[in-house]
Amino acid sequence: MPVEVISQDELQRRGSPTTIDLIKSLPVSGPVLGDSNQFSTAAQGQVGAGTINLRGLGSLRTLVLVNGRRVVSSAGAGSGGVDTNMLPVSAIGRVEVLKDGAAATYGSDAIAGVVNFITRTNFDGVEVNADYRYVDGSNGDYNLSAVYGKVFDSASVLFSAGYQHRSRLKTTDRDWSYRPYLENPSGYSVLGQPPSFLPLSATGAPTAGVTRDANCTNVGGFAGFSGATPACYFTYIPFDNLVEHEDRYHVFAQANVDLTEKTKFHVEAYWAKTDLPRMRFSPAFPPIQGPNGPGSVGVFSTPITNPGALTALQQAGLSAAQIAATSRISLTLFRPLGAGGNPLYDNGGQVGYRNYDIYRVAAGLTGELPIAGIGYDLGVTYSHTQNRQHTPDIFIDKLQRALNGLGGAGCRTNTPGTNGCVYFNPFSNGYAGNPALGLTNPGFVSGNANGVELLEWLFERGSETRQRQDLFVVDLVFNGELGIELPGGKVGWAAGGQYRTTDFQSTLRSPFQDVRVTPCPVPGTTNCTLATGPYIFLGQGTPQQLEDSVYAFFAETNLPITDALNAQLAIRYEDYGGLTGSTTNPKLALKWQIVDSFALRGSVGTTFRGPTPGNRSTNSVTGLSGIQAAGNNFKSVDFTGNPAVGPEKAFTYNIGAIFQTDVGRGSLRVIGDYWHFNIEDQITTVPAQVVATSVGGVGNGTQLVNCGAALRSLITFNNNNTCTQGVTVGNDIQRVRSDTVNGPRTKVTGIDGSIDYKMPDVLSGDVSFGASFSRLVKYDIGEFSVNGVFISAPYKALGFTNYDRFPGTVSKLRGAAYAEYTRDEHNLRVDLTYIGGATDNRGPTTVQTGSSTNCNVANAQAGIATNCQLTTIGLKVKSFYSFDATYRIELPWDTTVSASVFNIFDRDPSAARLEASYDPFIGNPYGRTYKIAVRKKF
Length: 938
What we know:
Elements: E1 3-7, H1 8-13, H2 19-24, E2 62-66, E3 69-70, E4 92-98, H3 103-106, E5 113-119, E6 125-135, E7 141-151, E8 155-166, E9 169-170, E10 188-189, E11 196-200, E12 211-212, E13 222-226, E14 229-235, E15 241-243, E16 246-258, E17 264-280, E18 289-290, E19 293-294, E20 300-303, H4 307-315, H5 320-325, E21 328-333, E22 351-368, E23 375-390, E24 393-394, H6 396-403, E25 433-434, E26 439-440, H7 452-458, E27 459-460, E28 465-486, E29 489-508, E30 544-559, E31 565-575, E32 582-595, E33 598-609, E34 620-627, E35 633-640, E36 648-663, E37 666-680, E38 683-685, H8 688-696, E39 715-717, H9 718-721, E40 733-742, E41 746-762, E42 765-781, E43 784-786, E44 789-792, E45 795-796, E46 813-823, E47 826-835, E48 838-839, E49 845-848, H10 857-862, E50 868-871, E51 876-877, E52 880-891, E53 895-902, E54 929-937
Parallel strand pairs: 2-5, 35-40
Antiparallel strand pairs: 1-4, 2-3, 4-5, 6-7, 6-54, 7-8, 8-16, 9-15, 10-14, 11-12, 11-21, 13-14, 16-17, 17-22, 18-19, 20-21, 22-23, 23-28, 24-27, 25-26, 28-29, 29-30, 30-31, 31-32, 32-33, 33-36, 34-35, 36-37, 37-41, 38-40, 39-40, 41-42, 42-45, 42-46, 43-44, 46-47, 47-52, 48-51, 49-50, 52-53, ...
């Protein structure tokens, strides 16, 4: 079988990369989470978590083990499987990567393969490690760890503990991450601050047209148009981070005891925690719902008696007559806080938090029964993980009350602006400038500024979503020989069973988060037409309690047909119960050693992945995504479960060759494999982007939608979900429903290759070099339909970014190469990591340079659009490569020092039409970094 082994010593020679850096350097691994980028929908519930994604088939199709036994998947919304950032890295001795479908042996989730993290054994003594990585623009990253081990006559113990710190990296520390609106509109919102507003008379008649706040450009906004409506486009990117502040801790212990000559006992336990204490967001989110239900445009208003209102009208140049006729101002395109920052958080973006923790205990007993030499392996594993997260938001009812002059915790009257009641100023004259960009606002009036006490009252800061997941597994395996001898030796066998149960629970700390308790904008009201909840932006949920139990039985045999030809047969049965049912999967693997230097290998079989408890839930989880049909403005996406979703299955095969020989004074090894996956009934969700564009089209949000589209029922529009043909536009989309289903067929094929050459006695040392690659040949997605409703046509995902569809970025080629020289206590190694680029399948988009009623891609390409231009940033996201060098020296007193330079040539990531202007699944935001590491043994 194609297995790659990475030893602890190799990791040290490569500069001791973090787990996520190691995973990203593997050519066989596709895009993974780990670099904290909150703008990817897949990462929103898992910012700071890590995953592994063999073959690019999705992280949930890679089984992650520790010492051969399962680990609980992370519990957050949109879980990507096991959080690899919370593995006990200081205790890891080697990593084994099985690059072949292996569900027949290991069970669910092993469609793409298995990654097994194996802890150190037979370590005797004490080891202390420390390293620091300098990152330009941040305070750097550092790690501390200690390991203690003791080997006795018939037992051994190992203890380890570690701490990792990752400093935040602001977007403003990388000038490529925030670009002008006309170049990349993705990081801008038409729901801006400063706002655009419509002055109204007492009868509701406009006293002037929609007016843009006069200080728009002074505080960093783009003075543009949404159709014919003046708008101040606000960029939230300077208030966000590329990488969040992270603190990570872990403690690990294990013991091995020889109870008898043939009976051995193993027990291990570890605890780990990741803490993101200050995760940055926009200063305030835009409203997607208001006092009267779903909506973004003109859903809030303020009277002319608001102290900031008169100033705003005067600064905007309205005449004295217009101002005198104005009674109320509709906030047409608006968010409560924006360019002026949020005074609650050092005038930066809002601050939330993410906390993840895990503890795991595993024990195993191996031995031999007094029956025909039959061996046994009994294992029991329990692991528990918990995810706690808080994201602040503003209350709808409180905001409108404050706009009316009835804001503040001390408000005790219905008379605006008196007896402790204060106004909220929604205009730019209430703040001194843009703190993120260092801009001064010439229109600032200090007496109109909003007080911190008022903002404290407006925000919900006591919310918290807590999700936990428990996994309990019992494995029992018997093994032995059948008593049948083939020309190559005796036939071996193994058979056993597995029982595992998963328990998932989600709780909400605040009653305002619970749709059952607070379904409407006004707390205490329960009879609203649409249950939007009390927040202007965030959705709600309900507490959940889900449980899943799976029974499995398997058998496998090893057939040494001849000395040169070996076969392995395996079959596994798993039963999920309920509507999901059961699945049976066989596998055959062969290896033919044709001559000493050359062998062929191959495998064929079926493999599978069962649904998670969340997949089978009747509840929904709300996420956020920039919706292309809405001009890339963020909208709520409701991910709903499906009790009837079944397991996905895959037919896989692998054909490979291994060539090893001596060449000159050195040894050469060449390995090549061709592999194929055909996945049916994949467990997926109906893509929110596909739903939205099928109804709303593609554009800057001003294009008309198709109210008669087949997927209209999955969209919630503003104005209480009203869709009027010829009137409703893309930016009127407020929510998109994304149902869990068994989706289209996926075919993926590729070629892996590696070459390694080692030669001793070169300049009194040893030289080795090599290269490896994974080249995808095909990544085809079949036609997608659900219950007879057409979702999307078949398409080829290979070489495309797929930002708006499954499976995300798919580079054609990933590769790595190294050259290494070792002489006595010195070691020098240079590594190259390469990730191929991709084409943005969405094509170009448009931006308005002035008022326009026909600005769309087709008209712009035809040259008939007015005040409209195409933006082509990121149509081709270029490849990214990094040269890294590490020098290691072994000093006296069992001390080792290494120095590394990563990304020697200081390459920036290629531009992409995403919020932070780069693709985190191709590029790296760090630039050139430097690392020093010290290891001391006692």
